[in-house]
Design a protein that fits this description.
The protein is built from eight helices and 14 strands. By secondary structure, the chain is of the alpha+beta class. It starts with 5 loop residues before the first strand and ends with a helix. The mean pLDDT is 96.
Length: 278
């Protein structure tokens, strides 16, 4: 049985299929080894935000994982097909590129789902985070900036955060350097300056992160990217996370350190929505 939030599925070589129809073989390496690339984006007014950038990153992830290069025009066509069939103005679009069975053919899959209902409620109250130690993925063999379906660690981090009474996690390396969240990039404000970890520390180059950097530059906001210890984050005036589906999410606590919901996250959330709908 498919998830009730899943509204449309399109598969290369088959087109639209029923949401509960099987689309992978049992020995597909995307399933057996987590060796597949994927992208997730939010859809505004029927249009996927930064679709071309997501398709470019899908191809980059495929190359790093060692997969054949996807035909991005075909993947885009599947996305369009699924979105038209779903008929949702606002939705979540997920694109997958999987190698199939050993020696078999690669396959592209597009999924369209409804936006999770919990997001707006969480945005209103802000989220509580805990810091968890995670390896810094700066070495190339650790696949930095790669979106793969090997997602067990991220899911375990979210589960650990909830076990500790929090909503989500923020990763730090063994030296206490701030990295990212399981599915988010992290930001904070010190006075009039916004700070976010640099890509040098091996974090994912999030597309919402990239959009925010463009928006802040256009609005004349001061932004610093660097290598920061967790103690620096604790002294912030305001903290928030960014991701494609959750957009900007205020943070009200990290490891017991409290923060007020600030105006920067609200203003940037509005700017992001305007850019997506423009």
């Amino acid at each position: 049985m498919s998830s009730p939030s899943l509204r449309a599925v399109a598969v290369s070589g088959r087109g639209l299929v029923a949401p509960d129809a099987p689309v992978l073989t049992a020995d597909d390496e995307g399933f057996t080894r987590g060796r597949a690339a994927f992208e997730t984006m939010r859809v505004y007014g029927g249009r996927p935000f930064r679709l071309q950038q997501h398709l470019t990153r899908l191809a980059m992830s495929a190359e790093r994982i060692g997969l054949e290069e996807p035909d991005t025009s075909e993947v885009e066509g599947l996305a369009t097909m699924a979105l038209e069939h779903a008929g949702l103005a606002d939705a979540v679009l997920r694109l997958y590129w999987t190698p199939g069975s050993p020696g078999g053919e690669h396959r592209a899959i597009a999924l369209v789902s409804t936006i999770p209902e919990w997001i707006e409620e969480a945005r209103g109250r802000g989220q509580r985070l805990v810091s968890l130690v995670h390896q810094r993925r700066s070495a190339s063999w650790l696949l930095p900036a790669t979106k793969s379906t090997s997602y067990a660690v991220s899911m375990a981090a979210e589960a650990e955060a909830k076990k500790r009474g929090a909503d989500d996690a923020v990763f730090v390396d063994a030296d206490g350097i701030v990295l990212e969240g399981p599915v988010t990039n992290i930001w904070w404000r010190e006075g009039d300056t916004l700070l976010t970890p640099s890509l040098e520390v091996g974090i994912l180059a999030g597309e919402t992160r990239a959009a925010l950097l463009e928006l802040t530059a256009a609005e004349g906001r001061r932004v610093e990217q660097g290598i920061y210890p967790l103690a620096r984050l604790f002294g912030a005036d305001e903290v928030f996370t960014s991701s494609s589906v959750r957009e900007l999410m205020p943070v009200v606590e990290i490891d017991g350190h409290a923060f007020e919901i600030g105006l920067a996250a609200e203003a940037l959330q509005d700017s992001l929505r305007r850019a997506a709908l423009g």
